[in-house]
């Protein structure tokens, strides 16, 4: 992929002298929020541009929050915004000419899609997960992928706490009965959560926050994770999943979608749970065997459940949650004391604003400066920003296959110039090199670019100026 757009002659490039500016935050609308007054320090920073600003095309899908849209738009990028995801064929047509794409959880960036994205340099996942992107293919073709691993942790943890209470008190059933005109004041099998045991599967950012909230409400906390993690409060890590299942009154899942977590909670695991226990899944739809859950609830083994994620989810809002989407759709809707929500664990105003800021800022840093800090599929490399006092400098980025002899050949090319600073790192089969070169002109930039592009190890060359 070329660092220069097709309609720009490298011979006629001019240096960027974009004025300094601050990125927006949500301080104006929510001054008390955690991200209020947050900006990227840009005083005297030289804004590097890989293309003419107006030629950077951004495609945002799935109703990315306005905070993210504003940050990208204020950079002068051409931003196209859609509220929904797109079927694969339509997505291929849309993605062909864009340099940046922003998605959430429903858009699938498969190898087939990415193969057609001839100008794409970076993907922003405005969510926690990145399993919807073929990360390996993206890395092998020099496409960086960023996400927001922390910003909606509190929102998900609070939803789970609410669902624990709602299930313990059968609030969903009582509410539905009242909506149908039925008064049914009962206490049978309705419980306080104080004194009960919560089992957390996956003690990451969400699980740890949930642990603290649960203890504050008087619950005991057990957790299971594949790595040893320090407990918060008086929570206790157990060595085996079956131990957690047999000792917990409420069980909640917070694990990524991996081959190891496919149907992690199935028929055997339901048999190991306490009679009358409760299950909550706010992680990934593939983690729980739903037909097995339906059977466990019908038998009374499981007294209640809350699901926020499903094996197959609609691409947009509408009357799509039915047996055509998932064969068990009708059966699960007819169960008692089950809470079904449409993947809204992180869907709060606070979380979406925070995600919008975090991911959009990462995209801007990558496009304008080549910084990969926070990338999930490339080595993390950063150099200090160039300043306005360094006008005749260029930043060379060379993404290449991690094979012997590459650095020698690259440094032979760079060695003809004054390299102010340089950093390189590798991740698996892909390596990422950044170097700042002083005293360059348009002819030098063109020469560097063409010589690096000619190397057999090349994945992608970018020159920021």
From TrEMBL:
A biological process term (GO) from this entry: L-serine biosynthetic process
Identification of the protein by name: 2-oxoglutarate reductase
Membership in a protein family: Belongs to the D-isomer specific 2-hydroxyacid dehydrogenase family.
InterPro entries: ACT-like_dom_sf (IPR045865), ACT_dom (IPR002912), D-2-hydroxyacid_DH (IPR050857), D-isomer_2_OHA_DH_cat_dom (IPR006139), D-isomer_DH_CS (IPR029753), D-isomer_DH_CS1 (IPR029752), D-isomer_DH_NAD-bd (IPR006140), NAD(P)-bd_dom_sf (IPR036291)
PANTHER family, per the entry: D-ISOMER SPECIFIC 2-HYDROXYACID DEHYDROGENASE FAMILY PROTEIN (AFU_ORTHOLOGUE AFUA_6G10090)
All copies of domain ACT, residue ranges: 395-465
Reactions catalysed according to its record: (2R)-3-phosphoglycerate + NAD(+) = 3-phosphooxypyruvate + NADH + H(+); (R)-2-hydroxyglutarate + NAD(+) = 2-oxoglutarate + NADH + H(+)
